[in-house]
Amino acid sequence: MKNCTTLLITISVIITIVSCNETKKEVKESPTEEQPPNIVFIISDDQAWTDYGFMDHEAIETPNLDKLANESHTFTHGYVPTSLCAPSLASIITGVFPRDHMVLGNDRVLPGDDKGGKPAWLSTWRADNYSTVIEDFKELNTLPKLLKEKGYLSFQTGKWWLGNYENGGFDDGMTHGNPERGGRHGDYGLEIGRKGMDTLNNYIDLALEKKKPFFMWYAPFLPHSPHNPPDSLLQKYLPKAPTEFVAKYWAMCEWFDQTCGELTDYIEEKGQTENTLFVYVCDNGWVQNENNSRYNPISKRAPYDYGMRTPIMFKWKGKIEPMLDDRTLVSSLDMLPTVLDLVGIERPKELDGINVLNKTELENREAIFGEIYAHDFNTVDESLFYQIVITEPHKLIVPNEVNKPNEKIQLFDIYKDPFEQEDLADENPEIVMKLKAQIEESWNE
């Protein structure tokens, strides 16, 4: 009897162990919450909206960005709210206008500052003036900060004007921002792309090793000057361009495209393409002068489309349907709210953009807006140059009466006249008044 009892106990223990193992197996194999997508922002630096293969440029070849455009929901009538890099990038990362994040220009100049005949960025007090801007910026919501809610790791590379990468909420990055070591607008970060992609690739590997979704800020110093492309690309464009200056710029555009291909190829090699959301934009435009290395004043820092317009793309394979939209108006301010909706994070109330993949929000939008300030800025009132409103089909440019007293209001039909050659303001006073009222309403909000 004792042996039978022992046998029964043994059998019971075995059944219990097997049952526990099966339960553990079921728990292990049960579906877990789907990991949110990796997010990669690709940000061109100083490139006109026309200067891509998919935008039908006569000479510039951009096969990798053409492929990205074909695989994305691509808006060809995208705009940045301001046509200078520091404020434009700050708006991309915060989703608010420059007047809200207060990075109005590239350098801050206070009353009484003596530059000694030097540009602000070469003056010793530049870092001191900018420090208060950075301290205020650190209190704002940024995309890296918001993504922490979903467990994202974030990494900064390339252009970054606001000191150390940590000031934007990034976990890690390439920009130290120390003015004593040459920190101003990217320092070590500006090497990405121009000197290879290893640092970026290593961080992707780290995030995958930790099994964490990642946010990658890829804002290389390309095709930005200095225009010193690889010789093979320069030789390719010299016979096609009107001058060597133009050939160098065109070659820089293709060099940037090559680095974008290296980035997307690496993510494909890691098996992450279907789990990665790519977002593309350019910080501001550029028109290359034919006879020197400078830009044409109708582009960078200007209120015209050559300065403000950019393709904006959203690609998430299998989740976002590819299409080329050559009509809808969108803004770089829309990038942040669109991304937050896609990954399921509640939007902060202060955002100035919308989810451009939401048809209802697009249909309810009447206009997008822009504002341009002095390169060396102080306050909004002292530094404002232009206010812009863009609708379908009109764009109104309102120069500041104090800072631009000799300029007149301009009105263009940007669909019939995409290069803004015919000013329609004098013959359409009603439209001008209506659009000015929209600007005032936007600023009052």
From TrEMBL:
<dbReference type="GO" id="GO:0046872">
    <property type="term" value="F:metal ion binding"/>
</dbReference>
<dbReference type="InterPro" id="IPR017850">
    <property type="entry name" value="Alkaline_phosphatase_core_sf"/>
</dbReference>
<dbReference type="Pfam" id="PF00884">
    <property type="entry name" value="Sulfatase"/>
</dbReference>
<dbReference type="GO" id="GO:0004065">
    <property type="term" value="F:arylsulfatase activity"/>
</dbReference>
<dbReference type="InterPro" id="IPR000917">
    <property type="entry name" value="Sulfatase_N"/>
</dbReference>
<keyword id="KW-0732">Signal</keyword>
<keyword id="KW-0479">Metal-binding</keyword>
<keyword id="KW-0378">Hydrolase</keyword>
<dbReference type="InterPro" id="IPR050738">
    <property type="entry name" value="Sulfatase"/>
</dbReference>
<comment type="similarity">
    <text>Belongs to the sulfatase family.</text>
</comment>
<protein>
    <submittedName>
        <fullName>Sulfatase</fullName>
    </submittedName>
</protein>
<keyword id="KW-0106">Calcium</keyword>
<feature type="domain" description="Sulfatase N-terminal">
    <location>
        <begin position="37"/>
        <end position="345"/>
    </location>
</feature>
